[in-house]
């Protein structure tokens, strides 16, 4: 089938990250023909840059405006149109669909949530005055939801150190073999300074990998740089491609992640993590976090439960780091559980089954 994915990049990387991951899964795992129309191609290209040319060449990454014309021809007419995160299709594109030789299905791809209510809305029709069938598709962890994006499925043991991406080679050569590695990718509101200062009070060496832009959050190069003792070392990173970022998560002992794509990859890395969920004004993010923790910690003992909840709500590391070994084992078990539950291909496979 032919798929057109519409991606509007609001302010972060998540929109592009999810669209790209879905596109490569549909194309390289499921043999579909995919185009992404995006209003910010440089960002999308940056994320996609690390992927093998055989995968990238099969997916068309196109400017938003080019969608207006080229689907009118029969050969280009899509079978499925995805509105990522409810973005509005361009009117001229929609007008073209109405006169196209075949009518596609439109999918409103929603945000990932662990909240129980999504299963009641997943797959429901959204009748439109233009008459083209449109459905809500809710990614989720439950069997009856739309699944999560699991591709590329991480290997059962972490990728070897010899597979280190070129963009990370220099930093990697500076890391200390015995130090615990922590990657940080969070929103500006996180209490990062205090968190790192408290981490420094632990009797342990840490190498902190700061993803692109995070050194500035700590005043590095911009003003009052954070002062930390020798045993905790900061390593600012460049922006790396999505595959390289996945690799980074798999090689760290602990990760701080944020929007939905890095959140899922941190789980698939099988390591403990803090999910710095995108803060919403009405505090809806707190409900979403609690819903996830209900699933994630099902079956965990009281100690691990309290430590994980404390960490995820930014309690200082000295209050919960004692549980790190138990949490690491739990992270590994959760990864295996997720892969089993999403068996058969996760979101991309469920989407195909839905439209098929
Ligand atoms: O960038 P995000 O904060 O995106 C968010 C989410 O989509 C959120 O749901 C939405 O409400 C908000 O935007 C507007 O975080 P996310 O989803 O984790 O996406 C980051 C992507 O960037 C992910 O695919 C990994 C990728 N990435 C790289 O490719 N290289 C890098 O160096 C880094 C740090 C990230």
UniProtKB/TrEMBL annotation:
The answer to whether UniProt assigns keyword Glycosyltransferase to this entry is yes
List the Pfam families hit by this protein, alphabetically.
EarP
Q: Give one GO molecular function term.
A: protein-arginine rhamnosyltransferase activity
Which UniProt keywords are listed? Glycosyltransferase, Transferase
Catalysed reactions, semicolon-separated: dTDP-beta-L-rhamnose + L-arginyl-[protein] = N(omega)-(alpha-L-rhamnosyl)-L-arginyl-[protein] + dTDP + H(+)
- UniProt xrefs under InterPro entries: EarP
* Highest taxon listed in the record's lineage: Bacteria
UniProt function note: Protein-arginine rhamnosyltransferase that catalyzes the transfer of a single rhamnose to elongation factor P (EF-P) on 'Lys-32', a modification required for EF-P-dependent rescue of polyproline stalled ribosomes.
Q: Which family does it belong to?
A: Belongs to the glycosyltransferase 104 family.
Report the protein name in the record. Protein-arginine rhamnosyltransferase
User: Source species, please?
Assistant: Polynucleobacter sphagniphilus
User: Lineage of this protein's species?
Assistant: Bacteria, Pseudomonadati, Pseudomonadota, Betaproteobacteria, Burkholderiales
């Amino acid at each position: 089938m032919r798929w057109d994915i519409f991606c509007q990049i609001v302010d972060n990387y998540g929109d592009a990250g999810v669209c790209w991951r879905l596109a490569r899964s549909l194309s390289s795992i499921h043999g579909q023909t995919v185009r992404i129309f995006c209003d910010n191609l440089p960002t999308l290209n940056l994320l996609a840059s690390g992927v093998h040319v055989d995968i990238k060449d099969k997916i068309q990454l196109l400017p938003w405006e080019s969608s207006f014309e080229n689907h009118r021809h029969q050969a280009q007419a899509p079978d499925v149109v995805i509105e990522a995160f409810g973005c509005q299709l361009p009117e001229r594109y929609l007008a073209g669909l109405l006169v196209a030789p075949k009518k596609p299905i439109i999918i409103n791809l929603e945000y990932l949530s662990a909240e129980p209510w999504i299963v009641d809305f997943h797959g429901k029709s959204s009748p439109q005055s233009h008459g083209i069938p449109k459905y809500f598709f809710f990614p989720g962890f439950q069997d009856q939801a739309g699944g999560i994006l699991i591709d590329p499925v991480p290997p059962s043991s972490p990728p070897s150190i010899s597979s280190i991406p070129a963009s990370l080679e220099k930093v990697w050569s500076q890391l200390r073999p015995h130090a615990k590695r922590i990657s940080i990718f969070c929103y500006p509101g996180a209490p990062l300074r205090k968190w790192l200062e408290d981490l420094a009070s632990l009797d342990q060496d840490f190498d902190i990998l700061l993803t692109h832009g995070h050194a500035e959050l700590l005043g590095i190069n911009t003003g009052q740089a954070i002062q930390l003792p020798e045993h905790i070392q900061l390593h600012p990173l460049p922006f790396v491609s999505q595959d390289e970022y996945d690799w980074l998560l798999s090689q760290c002992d602990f990760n701080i992640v944020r929007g939905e794509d890095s959140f899922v990859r941190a789980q698939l890395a099988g390591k403990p993590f803090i999910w710095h969920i995108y803060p919403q004004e009405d505090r809806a993010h707190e409900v979403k976090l609690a819903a996830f923790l209900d699933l994630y910690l099902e079956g965990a003992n009281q100690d691990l439960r309290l430590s994980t909840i404390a960490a995820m709500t930014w309690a200082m590391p000295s209050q919960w780091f004692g549980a790190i070994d138990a949490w690491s084992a739990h992270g590994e078990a959760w990864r295996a559980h997720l892969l089993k539950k999403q068996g058969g291909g996760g979101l991309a496979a469920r989407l195909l089954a839905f439209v098929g």
